[in-house]
Amino acid sequence: MTPVRTLLVATDFSDCSAAALAAAAALAKTFGAEVHLLHAFELPVPRVMAYEVPVSHLYIQQARDAAAARLREEADRVAAAGVPVHTHLEEVPAATSIVRVAAEMGCDWIVVGTRGRTGLQHILLGSVAERVVRLAPCSVLTVKAATG
Fold this sequence. Notes:
- The longest helix is centred in the middle third of the chain and has 24 residues, at 57-80.
- The protein is α/β, with parallel strands linked by helices and 148 residues long.
- The chain has a single domain, classed as HUPs (Rossmann fold), CATH 3.40.50.620.
- It is globular, with a radius of gyration of 16 Å.
- The chain has helices at residues 15-31, 46-50, 57-80, 94-105, 119-125, 128-135, and strands spanning 6-10, 34-41, 85-91, 109-114, 139-144.
- The protein has a five-stranded parallel sheet with strand order 3-2-1-4-5, with helices on both faces.
């Protein structure tokens, strides 16, 4: 088995992502690896954009700053456990960003949370985890959060 030195963890700040981050932090601690924590940033204004209403640069910057602050909070929790951590704030689409950063960083593993959607939900909402598994340049660990 190839040594595990670098783990890329994707987060959307959900419970599923929290479970993936916890798993990655435990693995990183076991292997003496570092964690790269990535959030794919998306502006919450698709309806506004459809009508071609200009979005203020200030609004975009405030949304980006809020995402970066949330990402830093997650990273601080990992660092408090004694695991080296780096953050990456990327643009959507998430799966493409995750795969690209993993390749650029030479990551050994990607760790992503999954909700386990099936049927119509899966068809309509898609699966970032599934796309990452198909496109990843390295091994992918999917972590399903406990339900109930």
